[in-house]
Write a structure and sequence with these properties.
By secondary structure, the protein is α/β, with parallel strands linked by helices. It has 2 domains: 137 residues, Aspartate Aminotransferase, domain 1, CATH 3.90.1150.10; 262 residues, Aspartate Aminotransferase, domain 2, CATH 3.40.640. Strand 2, helix 6 and strand 3 form a beta-alpha-beta unit. The two termini are 33 Å apart.
């Protein structure tokens, strides 16, 4: 039987511990249910001491790049310092269960309720949903509300000549998730070009707008790190055409306390709590992408919503018949929300503004150090990030952005984002964040400047980098498509 040979003892009444269930199915029958190619016939695990095991896994951990030890120029992916106290705050709520009755979780419901109010104050919106679990999920939720809004308004229009509003306009500098989310909701993406200063091209926008326009998705500052100089005119044009303006808040870290998207004319927006408000997000999770709306879109927010009544705080869906429904189990990634709540409470309004100002200052400081050594496609004041290019190095020495990124590893720095945004050839996107010192920024710039010189004096050194890592240059495409993850006795 399955339990034969197991060394666990069955616990007796009154004792602590866990008992094994009685199974009437013979072990060999259970084995037959598993495909033969998935069964391991031999187990060649080495016999090692506890100390050797500890040393082995400690060495492995030291091979991982960590923001606690080195600089990540990838702040937009939250590769920045996140105060440890916020992690402790999140741990305080780990024993709660989302299925508990409202009257037994009043503390967390109040936190969620208050946090929505904080987001409304910071970004200018009338209401928020905290359910979306990531930025792309927030995009999807916002677009679903835009669709519901237009469908409801179309039913009130008497004219039979009105086209179905089924197109969403997207600049060519947008995040790749934007057109994907548009298509998932059933809209058609319409891509328009940027102008020579990195703004939305107004002539292209006017040409794209029409009775079939449902809205425009815009990141501001955009992926070039540039604030659109004509944003008020863009908003007016979209609204005059009957469309809604959507704000991709992935880059909100540049604007806290400086300007609010709702005040600029954005009807709906998502915000990445894990990027802007302190959650370690390396490795793809966890995330949180709350969506804020102006008054006209509030009826379509997901349910249930946290309300405050005479009996305290509660989750309810009954008062919102026009809602698009639930978009996430329970109430979103609450652990991320708690971290963001702690971050906002600890910094306050002045602290949030100072963080954004410092992020903008750091980015412009670095950009001006590097622009004589790398091509700068948009030579204007940036916000929290900037994009340089290896165009000169490629044309003169055959060095690509990938080669420069690999060489940075030899200098102890994690590479920046490369080849994005797509409209910049050989792009290197650099975001220093607000938490890095001037000494760190200078060291990173010095490494990039030295690499630029190496491209001219010893290009093969750069092309063959990295030289000081356990694994050297890989075939990235093959590694992504054919990962070798199988354990062997010789590993």
């Amino acid at each position: 039987m399955l339990n034969e040979g197991l060394i666990f003892e069955r616990s007796t009444p009154g004792q602590k511990g866990y008992s094994l269930p009685e199974l009437d199915v013979p072990a060999e029958e259970l084995t037959n249910l598993i495909p033969a190619e998935l069964l391991r016939r031999e187990l060649n695990l080495p016999e090692v001491s506890e100390l050797d095991v500890v040393r082995h896994f400690t060495r492995l951990s030291q091979l991982n790049f960590s923001v606690d030890t080195e600089f990540y120029p990838l702040g937009s992916c939250t590769m920045k310092y996140n105060p440890k106290v916020n992690e402790e705050a999140a741990k305080m709520f780990t024993e709660l269960h989302p299925g508990q009755a409202d009257d037994s979780v009043q503390g967390i419901l109040q936190l969620l309720y208050d946090f929505e109010r904080y987001l409304c104050a910071i970004f200018g919106y009338d209401a928020f949903t905290l359910q979306p679990a990531a930025g792309a999920h927030g995009e999807l939720t916002a677009l679903m509300m835009i669709k519901a809004y237009h469908e409801e308004n179309k039913s009130k229009v008497k004219s039979q000549n009105l086209k179905v509003r089924n197109k969403i306009i997207i600049p060519d500098s947008s995040h790749g998730t934007n057109p994907a989310s548009v298509s998932m909701v059933g809209f058609t993406p319409v891509v328009i070009k940027s102008n020579g200063r990195g703004n939305v091209d107004l002539a292209a926008l006017r040409q794209a707008l029409g009775d079939d326009t449902a809205g425009l998705m815009l990141t501001n500052p955009n992926t070039l790190g540039l604030f659109d100089e004509h944003i008020l005119e863009v908003a007016e044009l979209v609204h005059q055409a009957g469309g809604l303006l959507y704000y991709d808040g992935a880059n909100a870290n540049a604007n806290l306390g400086i300007c609010r998207p709702a005040d600029l004319g954005f009807d709906v927006a998502h915000f990445n709590l894990h990027k802007t408000f302190s959650t370690p997000h390396g490795g793809g999770g966890p995330g949180s992408g709350p969506v804020g709306v102006t008054r006209k879109l509030e009826p379509f927010l997901p349910v249930p919503r946290v309300i405050k009544g005479p009996a305290g705080f509660q989750l309810t869906a009954e008062s919102y018949p026009r809602s698009i429904g639930r978009v996430h189990s329970f109430h979103g990634n609450v652990g991320v929300i708690i971290r963001a709540y702690a971050y906002i409470r600890s910094l306050g309004a002045a602290g949030l503004k100072a963080a954004s100002e410092k992020a903008v200052e750091n980015a412009n400081y670095m950009m001006n150090q590097l622009k004589d050594h790398y091509y700068l496609p948009y030579d204007r004041t940036c916000q929290h990030e900037f994009v340089i290019s290896a165009k000169w190095q490629k044309e003169k020495f055959g060095i690509r952005a990938l080669d420069i990124a690999k060489r940075l590893i030899d200098y102890g720095f994690h590479p920046p984002t490369i080849y994005f945004p797509l409209i910049v050839e050989e792009a290197l996107m650099i975001e220093p964040t607000e938490s890095e010192s001037r000494a760190t920024l200078d060291a990173f710039c010095a490494a990039l400047i030295k690499i630029a010189r190496e491209c001219a004096t010893d290009p093969e050194l750069v092309r063959s980098a990295p030289h000081h890592t356990p694994v050297s240059r890989l075939d990235e495409a093959r590694a992504a498509r054919e990962p070798d993850l199988r354990w062997t006795g010789n590993s």
